[in-house]
Amino acid sequence: MFHILNVDDLTTDFLLELWNLASLNKGKRNSKLKNKIITNLFYEPSTRTSSSFFSAMNLSGGSVIPINNVQFSSVSKGESLQDTILTMSTMTDAIVLRHHEEGSALKASEVSEVPIINGGDGKGEHPTQTILDGYTIFNCFSESMSNLRITLVGDLKNGRTVKGLVKLLSRFDNNHFNFVSPKHLKFSDKLPNSSYETSDINSVIKETDVLYVTRVQKERGSIYDYELSEEQLLSLPPNSIVMHPFPRITEIPTSFDKNPRAKYFDQIKYGIWCRQILLEKVLLS
After folding, report:
1. What superfamily does domain 7-126+271-284 belong to in CATH?
2. Neighbouring-strand partners of residue 211
3. What is the pTM of this model?
4. Which CATH number fits domain 128-267: 3.30.1300.10, 3.50.50.60, 3.90.1150.10, 3.40.50.1370?
5. What tens digit of pLDDT does each residue of 95-147 get?
6. CB 236 within 8 A of CB 213
């Protein structure tokens, strides 16, 4: 049984194959997952992840049981995560789980009779976001993931997408990481060998290939507000890219959206492509 719980579950060869298939398929419809069912089991709000899995599953001919608000399920009556997982395992071929507790996906995998795909577990990881983030970089830099200058901005302490992306890009050669945040929201995991921490984005933005912007996780107790100006973003090198896992609050001005360096809406499209291939791999393995 093939669980997707964190980035460490994804070998580099597996990712490269998935990304190449995503580039080849580009979200085309097929019937590979006809008669297959997944459950979207979301204990936290989601727009893109839940909808992306729904779309990806439908594109391959499968069906989705959407439980996108557990307050309308037996969870509101006190049902445990384990019992909910065991119940849905009898009705479905895989479960996409989003939960507010770090480690919840692992707990679910220990009792589930079907594959668990982690759709985000608290401050832990969000591996399918890492897959699509990696694909965005892979696609924009001519299938190269090395020799990049990556600048990560915002709530680096609580942002699970940052943790996964740093793990992934640390596998490749000669990547340098700039971590930009106030001291109380500094990156909490081990820093990569080639890294630099600062609170001043202006000191690194002009020498950045990938600018990865994140919102402040106020639902996890973070307190901070920031907004990058269009002037700052325009100082990026011409071949750089700007990414954001969304939702966006005020971090990137909408006036920058049409700039060719803005790739955050492409990320959403690529998420469908990648999740479609991932579901086919998980459900047909």
Report:
1. Aspartate/ornithine carbamoyltransferase (3.40.50.1370)
2. 151, 242
3. 0.95
4. 3.40.50.1370
5. 999 999 999 999 999 999 999 999 999 999 999 999 999 999 999 999 999 99
6. no
